[in-house]
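Pilot study result, target chain (328 residues):
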Amino acid sequence: MSGSIAVIGCGYWGKNLVRNFHALGALRVVCDATPEGRAEAARQAPGVAVVPEVAAVLGDPEVAGVVIATPAETHAELCARALDAGKHVLCEKPLALRYPDGVVLANQARAARRVLMVGHILEYHPAILELRRLIDDGQLGRVRYIYSNRLNLGKIRREENILWSFAPHDIAVILRLVGSMPFQVIAAGGSYITPNIADVTVTQMLFDSGVSAHIFVSWLNPFKEQKLVVVGSQRMASFDDVRKELVLHDQRVDVSAHGPVPVKGEGTKIAYGSEEPLKLECQAFLHAIATGTAPLTDGDSALRVLRVLQAAQRSLITQGQPVSLPME
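Predicted structure:
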């Protein structure tokens, strides 16, 4: 896999992908249409070819995998072109801005027998992997409720709203932790900077298992907060990505003849690996190409997230009307 990856886009996030694939010895070429992007690529990956045209990347027979880190509205078209050129694809989230476009891409990748992977980076975070283990081992008991806050001041986008920009990470993780799709999605929010581009949204997902989940995202917040909380019948867990802490809380609510009784205990910090999540994601892409196995965040995973995003968007524009998802 040495020198077989091309990265398209070396901007705000693409430069991190360039850095990681270069460090892994897998980067062959970087493509960026802007002089600034090409200069950044030269800084991040000295000695690696830098080109302005996508065609030069897709026409290179030595490029096995293409990584797409361009604006969201270009993802579907570039993914289709890369797959059509016989390349494996890692696309930053979201895979597309329309669920039907995502279905077309997943089918195209399947027919071409090519890897289609989406950059739901939180799924590769060592703390999230450890949280999944705690849940699978029964440490929390039955999961009852999950909430996620992803708040910051900026980066304010004019192409996609906050729901499509921030929430895919949280949706992907919650779907993985619950292990199923919600049957109903409700979303509400507001546009305060750019008309019709929501800056703040709150999304609720309801599951047949009885689990409920909330996702609060905003780029109009006075401080940065990235927190995930899972409430179980026996214990609770919280992951604070700003403070880099995963805590298992020995707390619950018991129900007695006299009513609900809160049981409060100590919290225990849970150790987790220190590997950079993006490095693990990049390694997963290389492994999928080398072995032909589907990555954790494959095309089907991307479609599940897109389905929830589309339902949330529909609820958002109808001022919070519940949207039912089709039965699986």
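One observation from the pilot: The two ends are 37 Å apart (CA to CA). A full batch analysis is planned for the follow-on phase.
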